[in-house]
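chain below, 327 aa
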Amino acid sequence: TAHGFRYRPGDDLNKTTPIIRPTQLEKQPWLKPVLKKNPRIFNDFFWPDGHIRVTGREYNGLLESPCYQRGEMSCVSCHSMHESDPNDQLARGMRGNQACLQCHDGMSDDLTRHTRHAADSPGSNCTNCHMPHTSYGLLKAIRGHTIETPDITTTLATGRPNACNLCHLDKTLDWTAEQLAKRTGQAKPTVPGEHRTTAASVLWLLKGDAGQRALAAWHMGWQPALEASGSGWQSPLLAELLNDPYSAVRYMAHKALARQPGFGEFEYDFVADEPARLAKRKAALAKWKPSPTNPAAVLLNANGQRQTNQVQQLIQTRDNRPMRLRE
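prediction:
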């Protein structure tokens, strides 16, 4: 209406508020003129398969989740506007696995059989595997709210990072496909050559689109990922993003760089002019200390030195399409 949506608490939201769902286009005829007028709207909000990729649209993600479609899950299953932690507005007791085990209670007695990770590790946190940080907003990565299972076929088709490689940053997609086939029986897809030799996070960081680069950079400073993948080897890669075309990517890269050994006090202005940014990139590369213990998949040789030519080749093939992620 001229005065906004007619929705009132307790009403059916679908009857009063247009909710864009790329997976339901045939049921949303009103969306066609919107798309004609704004043809980039899907790219601004969604991954190619319709998963939301920006914050502020978590409800869109929930609608595509089996827990909502085949169950009784709603926002208030986990969140509360009152008597909750202001950080994420999670209801009492919902910060850990209880949020999921309140429904999937049959898994609580033998959780590691399902997770195949140590009980006290980040790999046994339900949301780390089924709600990875694949949305961008507020200059950080946000958990996706479409509850899903890691699937390499989907990652290859959509470019959306999967939970496994967002934690195991030093591993290739081929490694992940092997692990999923071995542990879950998931069919292993044909994995392209570069995804058999170079860590997925490195490819997203250096040649991905701006959204992928931002997510990869954020995860290189994420503590669970540092515990799983080690630290230090990320520094020269993050240094390359100190001169990224997008200020948000530069900001996130510096935040992650500050989590690396020896870079806690590294000063950097993400909105400085390009000569200043290039000088900081050079300084970061000079400050980094190589280690021979790092794998070739992160573009380091047997002596721990960075493979400069390969790094630059990936940057030259970077997806430079303009992006406008509308959080």
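The beta strands are 135-137, 140-142. The chain has two domains: 16-148, 149-327.
thats it, cya
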